[in-house]
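Morning!

This is the sequence you dropped in the shared folder:
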Amino acid sequence: MSISIGSNAVSHQAYAGNAYSAYGAGNGTSKGASASAENAAGVSSSASTSVTLSEEAKAYLARGAAAQDDVLSLATVTANARTWFDQQYASLGISSAMLDGQVAVDLSGQTRATLSAVADNKNGQFTEDEVAAAAKVLQSRFDSALSPHVVIARHTGDYASLYAAASDYLDKAGPDEKATKTWQDQKQAVQDGWAVARVSFGKAPDTGNEDDPVKALLSQALVQTPAPAAGSSPDKLAAHARAMLDAQAGSAKDNGKELVFNSGRTTGQQADFTDFDNRTLAIMALNSDAKFSSAEASAAKAELNQRTRSGLLAAFNPSSGGGAGDVTLGLLQQYQTMSPEERSVLGFTDDYANKIMQNYRTMSSIQNSFGSNASGGLAAYL
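The structure's back. Tokens below.
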């Protein structure tokens, strides 16, 4: 069965030949190759410029470009990459591919073969930052390709299919990439993980192999993103809390467990609020935008209540050596440091602060009547 590309197969063939030759010219192919392609097609280059490409033709040309990249020698690929980096530095006015730990050049247009050659740096033509940038983009592409499979694995417990998808992705590498130690180590790690996953349904395999790219992708759930700056909007804090809880839930599923919020549960993985500040917990408890389940909101409120109770007990601790005035100041200080969201959840109103203040003045008056000095520094808390 034959497929006609567009309405004019001959013209498309000529255009494909010209495009293929133009691609090659940019990668060291002589102009004679372009002329040969045109003559082989039997039409002039001017005729090809009038062609309107169909979707089939575009796919055909894309396959041709990918094939051309595959046949380029490693020396040519690295030389082209070296030239590209130098051009980027001149154009952007920078001298490194990494700035502040982030990739500073746009590597999205580079092929997998090019990125692998740079990351491997077999010919020693690239800097440490260039190698790191290429490796980071390669990993990002792997993560993007496998992310949908991670979602499915965590939903179904079928981690074997996730490792099968990773193996397929690695197999699509070119011969030069497959010759690198990085690829070979990753392939072996994926094969080992796949074997374990097939016999241990319901959780991610743990082979202890640090070269496992799937394990690295799953472990991203354990990496805490930086908290929003102090004074951030409730929306930002809620979104950050949602991301942290989702990360914990993903980690729990990888361990074959469910994330739970009831300390009385004997099964499951308990949610950890250690990295949640009080204002974030209060926003979760209020749950005004319904980002959290009732169990999550209740657990956040319980954690906030426990922290507040501990603070109150500390203020009344007789071992601190303070008098009644110091206790009152401690309570007032705790109130003043609460966010509006915390006060709302805990039911601390302005009346609470007013009563504390009134009690302080009463005690100060009594102390003064006996010639004692009241504790200073009250103005700092008002």
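Headline: Residues 316-381 form one domain.

More detail when I'm at my desk.
O.
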